């Protein structure tokens, strides 16, 4: 069904309105006073025409908050995207009018200053979580059009310019991600554009910020951080009903467009590279205006022979949003200063023309081999869940059939560490899945390798050196006991020792077979406890400790109590087994003694027969010995008593074994739930508040400390802000996924070395710098 493009007007705060801009009583119209000398050129008017121009829009938002803007202009579009309609929200207006503020917000200011993009990301994730009947996968892309050249802001090499291609297609099943298959609708896609999968809100935000940091900006008279490019951040949603067995999948995308601002170069006084950029910006906006005019005049099948949407990258890409399969909203940003009245009128003219456009949005459903593959991947996930459920119903402890998480690995390392230290019996090591057993072997293997290397080094040094080295280490650390390479009391064997404190088994790759470095040993349990590597691993380990201590201390205490009870029960079991075995050994000994007595008696009888007595054919059984001596009698009585002991001990062992199994299952289940809860909390941005308590505090740079404090404050004000700040932290930590690593960041910074980075570190634009932008 055809629907009109919605148009909203937003003004930025200004002191210098002086009656040049008046909101009309209906709240949706505005009157703009234009000084006769300020009339825009080319309008055909002369000085004696009316000097008040009126425009009407869907709504006019004067100095509105970011929240109001999102609620009025964007929330509906996002909801439509969730039901399968494509959506576009774009900001248009003169330079400095607040387009970037509207779309991205002020990332360096307070949380409530965030713009439409972060809010839309939150809305989409939050709503899809609430709509439990749908499974939704999210991908994002970030495109920049700079001087009419496209750049992929999420590519590994963002400076690469010629690898993107705009393709128009109709019902082509080779591109299922965003296409309304079978509807005959036309769609424009960008081949080669990176689309990143996002597991959660924080990842999507991090990709957005990563792209923003790469965007070209520069400083001029009207705006300190003026965008020099058009940017399109797109969120792709693929959803299907939970339990729906068909390959029918709904796909939709949300384009969030921040256009570069039109600028009168006389006002901005730019020169050199900036002047070139301004010319490109103005030209592309003129093409946009022409395309809008042509579409307004001729409808979707624009037949104007002089105007083609393909004449610029921007119009080509926005073609669907302006007259195709999309629900579109324009936010016209105004700077209603009397000084900018002519730009205000131009913007309003453009906006009212856009208001006449009609789009035809349809719900996009796709049936495609690639979707089927994704469906099978989902089925595998579901089967793993089924298996886990089956285990639960069968009374087995939950088993992780998927990839082992870092938290689980850490727990395992702790347990192996305790086992190596002799604090945990081998039976307590978990072995519910093959994955777990392999991981344990891997840990042991690398621990052994580390020890072996130490030993070889020590032997290579020779006995004297070894003794000296051991003595020096002992003096340094105050305790050389248990060190790798130490001789035991007899001097004939070596203590295996423990792995170095920073030991982490590397992944199972050929490189992983390299020996581990050595260091002073302090105990395997401790070694395993600190066995995380990488910034996030440390943060996660710290977060886990913090979570146990401060967020869920009761549950953590309960888990610790359950583990202590389990250990005590296992001790009881070991003692009962020992009692049982001792009784059995005694019974066996008595039986042996009786047998020997019987055989001796038989031998005596045989010798008597040789002297004339009757010879029995077989030796008599023990009970048939007519006369037994006192010693044999005592032994038989003891055996009888020990048999009773043995039976009782055996029963005790049986019932203790059952109790241990049950308790062990309970512990595993409790722990799995606990770790899952921690994971969910951590994914939502929890954990940052414990960052400073991490022993790696010294490694935090100033920015990270600032992030931490900022996070604490914002979490207090708004508990939903976790993902937003988590994503900023991801960006700052330079994690490769999502976003970019630190080395890539420096490439990006170099890339915009001629300007200022928005959202990143600033480098003032030097107007004398006329060198081409290093792409
Ligand atoms: N509604 C608003 N409330 C508060 N500050 C605003 C508002 N709109 C804009 N600003 C501020 O005005 C300045 C210019 O805004 P912004 O960079 O968003 O303009 P722009 O339209 O994107 O400009 P350009 O086209 O040059 O990139 C920024 O410092 C921004 O924070």
Give the structure's gist in a few sentences.
This protein is of the alpha+beta class. It has helices at 66-82, 99-103, 116-130, 201-214, 265-268, 272-298, 313-323, 341-354, 369-393, 406-420, 434-461, 463-477, 524-529, 535-551, 553-610, 630-683, 702-717, 722-733, 742-751, and strands spanning 2-4, 6-11, 21-23, 29-33, 52-56, 59-62, 87-93, 134-146, 149-152, 165-170, 186-191, 196-198, 216-220, 223-227, 230-241, 249-258, 327-334, 358-360, 365-366, 756-757. It is elongated and about 150 Å long.
How big is the Rg? 38 Å
Name the CATH class of the largest domain. Answer: Alpha Beta
Assess the beta-strand content as a share of residues: 5-15%
The number of E-state strands comes to: 20
Q: How would the global form be characterised?
A: elongated
Total helical elements: 19
Please state the average pLDDT score. Answer: 73
Unreliable residue stretches: 174-182, 463-534, 692-698, 735-775
**Total discrete domains:** 3
The percent of residues in helical segments reads: 40-55%
Identify the CATH architecture of the largest domain. Answer: 3-Layer(aba) Sandwich
The hetero compounds bound to this protein are:
adenosine-5'-triphosphate
Helix and strand composition category: alpha+beta
The CATH homologous superfamily of the largest domain is called Kinesin motor domain
InterPro entries: KIF6/9_C, Kinesin-like_fam, Kinesin_motor_CS, Kinesin_motor_dom, Kinesin_motor_dom_sf, P-loop_NTPase
Pfam family, one: KIF9
Keywords: ATP-binding, Coiled coil, Microtubule, Motor protein, Nucleotide-binding
Protein name: Kinesin-like protein
